[in-house]
Amino acid sequence: MRLPERLRLEDFPHSPYARELKQGVSRLRFSRRLEELYRSAHLTRMRLRIRLWSSLVAALGLLEIASRLSHHGSFQLAPLPNLITEAGALLVASVAWSRHYNRIYLPLAQLVTPVAAACIAVIVAREIRAGHGEQLAVLTTNLVALFFFTGLMFRAALVSSLALLAAFVGSFLAAGQLHAMLPHVAIVLTTLLLCIVGYHDIEYAQRRNFLETSVIAELIARDELSGLASRTAFDEHLAQLWSQADRSASSLAVLMVDVDQFKTYNDTHGHLAGDGALRAVAQLLKNTARRPLDLAARYGGDEFIAVLYDLPSERVYEIAERLRQGVEDTALSGELRPSARLTVSIGCAVIVPSAQRSPQGAVQLADEALYEAKQAGRNRVILKGMEEYRRLDTGSFRSSATAPA
Hints:
It is a single chain. By secondary structure, the protein is an alpha+beta fold. 63% of the residues lie in helices and 8% in strands. The protein is built from 13 helices and five strands. The longest helix has 43 residues, at 178-220.
């Protein structure tokens, strides 16, 4: 998926995905948080392939164990490389099919795969020296699988493939068969080169597609006029943040922001001026919610909303007051009349979420605070905390009269 030509990355100044796209993905590594998200998406995409390959290798290992038992009538200890390969295959396959797959598969595979690859190379080299040259196919098959079936990232797959190559060459050198190994090493090197080029291009394309898809998802979740998140995106973010704050006993602050007498302003100065005023308020609100877990959105019409994560009430009030003052001090120019004056009323709710309450209650509490701010004369901040929240009956707005516009 490619970004439409009319979209510019500069239109997404606060998007971590757009920031990574501007830096380029040729290094095949993102910032820590995005890397975690990409790896999770990668593991989901590769799950079937990983399970099929790991199960096949584990099954071959079990067949090898059964073969030793049938030939000798009792358990015979295999050479160490065989034991390591079989144990590693069983371990990786068990994790690939477990419920801990997303969490521990990659760390485990990054440790086990280089060792197992080196052991396979030693086993194959031993077979080739014994006159079984067809066993080279086993090595090249495993080399291809390292890049395309194990789910390893490019760098980890490269490390494992180099471990395989080093062990293969080392086995021949240790046996003093330098000339015998050259044709086989040439085939392995050719296969390795093709895998490196092919997998690098694939991971580059997948990473770029991940970023571009995420930017487009942000665009879909964004209000076109204000550039803020949409109401739907805000509700989804608040629900996720609610669960996180509940687990960590952190506070959430919900800010409801309403432009005072916006209908009069719009009718007096025109719709272009009204749109410009909304964009000006949105920009100030966006600068207020800049931290990774904070989010600002257009809630509808001339109303905006923001959620701030884990801040004390005093700090929330300072932020809201600075926002209110910033709107009042904003010099509206361009298509707006120089004499135009804009103010906002802000209602704040600072609460500690719990599993027994819903995010809607926090929004309602902020809405009630906003109503009081308008009733008290507009252009002011009203903050409500846990005491008011405990008395709140979610879904029953306690101010029945219509608030001033």
